[in-house]
Design a protein that fits this description.
Helices cover 49% and strands 12% of the residues. By secondary structure, the chain is an alpha/beta fold. The protein has one domain: Collagenase (Catalytic Domain), CATH 3.40.390. Strand 3 and strand 4 form a beta hairpin. The chain is globular and about 55 Å long.
């Protein structure tokens, strides 16, 4: 308890530290969500970025040099996702590895007759239970600048990290009680079933088909749409939207414009003043 109090006090001081003007420019250029937040919410976002950068370790991979643009952009997008969790920084996530583009990762599976089949597959990002997150930098930018439609790699991987906070990556985030978890999981499974039926029927859906891979991926992909085009998600499945409001403790539909994703062509290249 004593060490928790010390950490909270230290974080409170870091949150109040100055926010460089160069970082403000990065927010305006790379995290369009911030332009739609109220002033109090933007202040909290700045505080989150300060603490995130003080506590998380960044590592460049594949020759990428991690600079303030990379660090601030990733921290701010994480802060947008965590706006409903005051004082929570997902302490089990300790390091962020960033590639200059999509990368390849080794996979293997045992064969029935003995031996192991090994191959490499392309990756955009991944989250490890050991406490690391891997990201493709261009894909992070696409999400922050609303250039990926309803896709947002950082939100996708952050959803996995939130999902893992209770020790399991099963599509069910930490909730207030076992009863709440059972109720949420049941409604979530019903939403996933509706999605898969529509997908099988060839009907239009707002989520990438990859969402059908597992409950964990359904939660992550749905969370992308939740933060990129929440009004479309409401139209598609109001119940799913309500579950994500509960999971993320906020509702982006209240502050992202109804034309949110379509605004990217009008806003992405200009500096939004705030």
């Amino acid at each position: 308890m004593f060490f928790g109090w010390l950490r909270s006090r230290r974080r409170a001081a870091i949150e109040q530290a100055s926010f460089p003007s160069a970082w403000e420019t990065i927010l305006r250029r790379n995290v369009l969500h911030a332009a739609w937040l109220g002033e109090d919410a933007r202040d909290r976002l700045r505080g989150f970025v300060n603490v995130f950068l003080a506590e998380k370790r960044f590592e460049g991979c594949g020759g990428l040099a991690v600079d303030d643009e990379v660090r601030v952009t990733i921290a701010a997008l994480a802060g947008v996702a965590m706006a409903g969790f005051r004082g929570e920084y997902l302490d089990h996530l300790r390091s962020i590895l960033v590639y200059p583009g999509d990368y390849r990762a080794s996979r293997s599976t045992p064969l029935a007759g003995g031996g192991v089949l090994e191959w490499e597959e392309p990756r955009l990002g991944e989250t490890w239970l050991g406490g690391s997150m891997v990201l493709s930098w261009p894909r992070v930018l696409e999400g922050g600048r609303f250039r990926g439609g309803g896709e947002n790699l950082l939100v996708h991987e952050w959803a996995h990290a939130l999902d893992a906070a209770d020790g399991e990556v099963d599509g069910v985030p930490p909730l207030a009680s076992p009863r709440a978890r059972r109720r949420w999981a049941g409604e979530f499974a019903a939403s996933m079933e509706r999605f898969m039926v529509r997908l099988d029927d060839g009907r239009a859906v707002p989520l990438d088909p990859y969402a059908a891979e597992s409950p964990a991926e359904f939660f992550a992909v749905a969370s992308e749409c939740f933060f990129q085009d929440p009004h479309r998600l409401v139209r598609f499945d109001r119940s799913l939207h309500g579950l994500l409001v509960e999971a993320w403790r906020q509702d982006p539909a209240g502050w992202i414009p109804r034309r949110g994703t379509r605004l990217r062509a009008e806003v992405a290249e200009e500096i939004v003043e705030f």
